[in-house]
Amino acid sequence: MTYLMLAGAMCLSLLASEPEADAETYAAAYKAILESGGPMVVMVGTDGSPPCQAMKRHVLPELRRRRWFGRIVFARVNARREARLAQRLTGGGPVPQLVMFRRTPEGWVRRKLVGRHSVETAERFIEQGIALDEATRRQAAARLAARQRTGEADRSEAPNGDD
Question: Which of the residues 18, 85, 145, 157 has the least number of beta carbons within 10 Å of its own beta carbon?
Fold first, then answer.
């Protein structure tokens, strides 16, 4: 009986340390990126792959501990359970993959880190993506400021008058 209680307590502690599944779904992350405009990183993997499990058990928790997930929107996609989505995200490539999406004035930009990597490599991948995103935002702000100085109209839509 004591062993059963100990096993139950261990399971509960493991569940408590794992982030809420809903918080890391692609749907939730996609909604968040549309609202924030910031970069999104998706971990595409499977449950049975040792490289995927290594990334899930060692790399992702360390990235979370180092607070990278506070600077990006993060999601996990299981390539077996969400095969069509995984195909679209990875282009059919191998797993694991960290896929970063950034919104630019020209549209979405995708970067990929394929295979099992160290925490440091994954950290550099995210850091470079954030730097690219920040540079894109600065360039867009500078273009907007230049247009406003010259009186060039921006391309935003006029209100529809239903207010």
Answer: 157
Whether 11 maps to a domain, the answer reads: no
Q: What is the CATH number of the domain that holds 79?
A: 3.40.30.10
The phi, psi pair for 116, rounded to 5°, reads -80, 130
Query: What is the predicted pLDDT for the residue at 6?
Result: 35
In a domain, 141, yes or no: yes
User: In a 3-state reduction of DSSP, which class is residue 107?
Assistant: strand
Q: Provide the 8-state DSSP code for 66.
A: T
Decide which of 10 and 115 is more confident.
115
Q: What are phi and psi of 151, to 5 degrees?
A: 80, 10
Q: How many CA atoms lie within 13 A of 104 on its CB side?
A: 16
Separation between Cα atoms, residue 51 and residue 57, nearest integer Å: 10
Number of other residues whose CB lies within 10 A of the CB of residue 82: 16
Residue 161 lies in a domain: no
| Residues whose CB is less than 8 angstroms from the CB of residue 6 and which lie 6 or more positions away in sequence, other chains included | none
Number of domains making up the chain: 1
